[in-house]
Amino acid sequence: MGLFPKVKCSRCDKLISKFSVRCPYCNATRGKGGKHSAESDNLRGKMVVGLSLIGIVVIAVVILLIASIKSDQQNNPGGSPPPSAAPSSVLPDDGSTVGVTPSPGDETPPPSEEPEPSPSDLPTATITGVDIKTPFSTVATLAKPGDFSEKLGKSLDMSVKVTPADSTEVPVWTSSDDKVFSVVPKGTDGLKATLTITGTGSATLTVTVGDKTTTCIVRGQKP
Fold first, then answer.
1. Which of 57, 81, 99 is the last residue of a domain?
2. 51 and 133 share a domain?
3. Which range of residues forms the domain containing residue 51?
4. Which of 31, 127, 178, 193 has the smallest number of Cβ neighbours within 10 A?
5. How far is residue 123 from each of residues 120, 167, 193, 209, measured CA to CA in Å?
6. What is the model's pTM?
7. Would you say the C-alpha torsion 112, 114, 116, 118 has a positive or negative sign?
């Protein structure tokens, strides 16, 4: 054994000094770990080359993505598609319109319909007569207020005659004292009413048609 430790050369397997950088027999570079250092160095070199290739590929992909994004921004600065052109109007020689899209201002509004007059808008005939009638006779007119008597508990079918007959005014029936008699109109035209004697004494029956009024005194008597 010499003064200096020996290691085997990784290439020729001959013993050389541990402190020798190259093998004096085959001129191979000695690894720090001896024979197996060359294999380790080869593996390390392959890993470095592989990682370098992967890094180059990643960098290339990133560059392509950035270039693509910049190209899209240059082609479409506003970020929205350009508006499509409005269709133009084409007028043939015969005057008809083909493929024309009218603007909102060119549309012709439909003809307005005349509203039908409501009953309140219709002309009203001038009332010249209001006659209160019982089943038996006329008891009051515009010219002559009247009166009649009936027994307690009785009901009479009253009516009113309005002149002219084509008047659209609806008669209004009222009692001045419901304790003597009550009056309830019948129908929608108001030309008839039911009068019921509810007590003894006297009260006024009033029929108003438009601006005309006729009155009648109703007397309630004991049975």
1. 57
2. no
3. 6-57
4. 178
5. 8, 9, 26, 15
6. 0.45
7. positive
